[in-house]
Design a protein that fits this description.
This protein is of the alpha+beta class. The chain is about 30% helix and about 25% strand.
Length: about 190
């Protein structure tokens, strides 16, 4: 078997980071999710049963989000809003709110070109990724800022800082109470400038 490389875990504990390696074969397909039928089983907050898969397409690794509207998948700090993207050596992937992985090519591994990746940096990037909550409030805050002549920039900054936390609250609530149909909605009411 020829290998493209591997996925390496990134952990908050530096002693555990890089301890788990998941090999990726050339021409192969790796399914990732919480279901036991996946090639790579990862369980945690907002990790779907069939979250995503990785496919080798002519030597290029393609990451396919099985439901981009619902499955949180962040690559290098950017939310994957389409069904797929290409992954390169050194890229890091965050699944849901639970797992951070890094793709290491076979070439990088053979040359020892694997740098340490700080979990806090990956987490900070993942939290700054655009989100559905941010999209929901962005338009209202921009309108408010225009009406106030830019005096609400601090309000906007604080509201945007809260977005990832609200996303995580929604994910936790949906995980703990899946039958409640919890949704987050922004309602603009009686805003006075």
């Amino acid at each position: 078997r020829e290998y493209l490389g591997y996925l390496m875990n990134v952990s908050q504990d530096p002693m555990l980071s890089g301890c788990l390696l998941f090999p990726l074969t050339k021409g192969g397909r790796t399914t990732i999710g919480s279901d036991d039928g996946n090639t790579l089983v990862l369980r945690g907050l907002a990790v779907a049963p069939r979250h995503c898969w990785l496919v080798d397409v002519g030597g290029r690794l393609k990451l396919i989000n099985t439901d981009a509207a619902r499955h949180r998948l962040v690559v290098n700090g950017r939310l994957v809003l389409t069904s797929s993207c290409t992954i390169s050596g050194g890229d890091h992937i965050v699944l849901g709110w639970a797992h951070a992985l890094r793709f290491v090519t076979a070439n990088q591994a053979s040359k020892g070109q694997v740098d340490d990746l700080d979990f806090e940096d990956v987490l900070r990037e993942a939290r700054s990724a655009p989100s559905s909550v941010r999209s929901a409030i962005e338009e209202d805050l921009e309108s408010l800022s225009r009406l106030s002549g830019g005096r609400n920039d601090e309000l906007s900054r604080q509201a945007f800082a809260l977005c990832p936390l609200l996303e995580e609250v929604v994910a936790i609530t949906n995980e703990l109470r899946p039958n409640d149909g919890f949704e987050f909605e922004v309602v603009a009411a009686g805003v006075t400038v």
